[in-house]
Amino acid sequence: MIFRTLIHMLRSRRRSPLGLHDVGSITLRVLPTDLDVLGHMNNGVYFSIMDLGRMDLMIRSGLWPTMRAKGFYPVMANETATFRKSLQPWQTFQLESKIVGYDAKAVYMEQRFVVGGEIFMSAMTRARFLKKSGGTVSMQELADLVGVDVSAMPPPEWTAHWSENISLPPTRGPAPSEWS
């Protein structure tokens, strides 16, 4: 995956610019290393490939170099996916990525794997931003950095319940693994 990531980082720098809230789209192909024992793209690989779409959007919108200069970097807080159809070996697909909203702590992005205009898989992600120097980037810091009024773009309504129901305790608090 590291080689694929590096190749797409270089390609993204040469592609046309995008606005931060535009739909980013990259064309990819299912490689033999993406397959599971059933011969279709492994469910875990979808999440790895989604990184490429997020990176492409950040590079093409100019967010990537701006964030790097400030020492900010994104991390996934939550991800969920719905699989509709399998991607087969060597099949070409588009990965579409779009920021769909912001809450008090995170950025929400929808990503879709599309073949011939048809959605094969759709995912919702929730990302936080951290500082290399330590700590979390506030949404106000992020808004100031990119010049966006994050309060004007709330995430889809259903995501409030989703993120509440799947969140784990903060990293500094206990999170015992106890099965009921």
Provide a concise account of the structure shown.
This protein is 32% helix and 29% strand.
Number of domains: 1
CATH topology: Thiol Ester Dehydrase, Chain A
User: What's the CATH C level?
Assistant: Alpha Beta
User: Which quaternary structure do these chains form?
Assistant: single chain
Q: How does the major sheet shape up?
A: 5 strands, antiparallel
**First-last Cα distance:** 37 Å
Secondary structure tally: strands: 5
Explain this structure:
- The protein is an alpha+beta fold and 180 residues long.
- The chain has 5 helices and 5 strands; from the N terminus they run H-E-H-H-E-E-E-E-H-H.
- The protein has helices at residues 2-14, 43-61, 63-70, 139-146, 158-166, and strands spanning 24-29, 72-83, 92-102, 107-115, 118-131.
- Strand 4 and strand 5 (118-131) form a beta hairpin.
- Helix 1 (2-14) runs parallel beside helix 2.
Helix and strand layout, with pairings?
Elements: H1 2-14, E1 24-29, H2 43-61, H3 63-70, E2 72-83, E3 92-102, E4 107-115, E5 118-131, H4 139-146, H5 158-166
Antiparallel strand pairs: 1-3, 2-5, 3-4, 4-5
Helix pairs in contact: 1-2
Primary descriptors:
five-stranded antiparallel beta sheet, alpha+beta, Thiol Ester Dehydrase, Chain A, 5 helices, 180 residues, 32% helix, globular
